[in-house]
Prior knowledge:
Blueprint: E1 7-10, E2 19-24, E3 52-58, E4 62-68, E5 76-83, E6 98-106, E7 121-126, E8 145-157, E9 161-172, E10 177-189, E11 193-204, H1 217-220, E12 222-228, E13 235-241, H2 242-248, E14 255-264, E15 268-277, E16 284-293, E17 299-310, E18 323-334, E19 337-351, E20 357-372
Antiparallel strand pairs: 1-2, 2-3, 3-4, 4-5, 5-6, 6-8, 7-13, 8-9, 9-10, 10-11, 11-14, 12-13, 14-15, 15-16, 16-17, 17-18, 18-19, 19-20
Amino acid sequence: MLNAIRYVRYGQKRDSRALYLRLGRLDEARLGYGQILYLYNNSPAYDNRKRGVEFDLDLGAVGFESVYSNLARPEIVGLRGYVRPLHGRPLPLLNRIEIGATAAADFGTRAGYTAPDGQPFDLGVLPENRIYFATPGAGQGQTPALFGADIGLPILRNPLTDLTVYLDGATIRGGGSGAAAGAQLQLRGLGLVHLGARLEHRILGDGYRPSYFDAFYELDRVQEIARPKDSDSSQVVTIQTRYSQTLAATSTGNGVYGELRGDVVQKLSVIGSYQRLYRDPKSGWLHVGADLNEVVPKIVLRGTYDKWRIANERDLFTLDDRSIARGELGYKPIPYLTLSILAEWTFMPIRDLNDRIVGYTPQKRIEPKFAFGFAF
């Protein structure tokens, strides 16, 4: 029965309420401006669904944002605390300065496996097709952890316009660091139309990647490949982790990230974002989403799409092992109940003989869904 519950939520992320809580599946979790954790998805594989928590509290002068990816066992834990040192002072704009600090780590099994050069490495021979793992401690590095700081300064704020500039930097334990300088703009049209835009310049050093915990993190945090051994019929397991690959990465130069959002009378909302690093031909990362909530009375239509490692724009909307897509068509027979059909391009875990996940393969799913929503 619990598997049928996708999530339970109170409030919206960064809305006017002091409290935001989401329990269950996390689709677009983020901390701060996103240098460490952004658009994180804890369940890209339907058959390996996790229940996590997002919990934020804003008390005006201080507040925090938090993410816990898996209630069943310790995995990703992230926390951003922030202060507004001039909150409540009669200083327009300056009383909205926000200074934050973020820490996030993955305590999951094998997430910190590393090799000296960051390349895949062997864990052992597999006689009789049985998968073995290295003895405890072999190949293990430190827990993947990132630490960052940010500051946001509003430079224009009135009932129609909100413009904030910010600096956001982070470093990864055992690796390098990076930063972003950007601006985000919000336009409000008589309470009916909200538009948002964000543009940032990303500065990346060796051994670092921005938004380390992203929509695809769960798919490549640990990958195992079993291959035949040349001398006999046995096999060898090769393992690679995102952490190992990140520590060994040579900077491909700086890049740009842009984002557009729109909301019309809370009936139509859209988002689109794209990253491109200047010297990396496969650095494209796209996220788009749309939600039409009773634009046509009683009809709900929403969807999201993520694609990474995009080499060229012809590759943007081809569904493959670098894509996650979700679409939903629903009907509201009564205001608080939605009956819908959900179609997903997601992933199915590949398991070894010991029922451990060693990889993922794309999977298409269509299933019914019902949801309850109450405003209070």
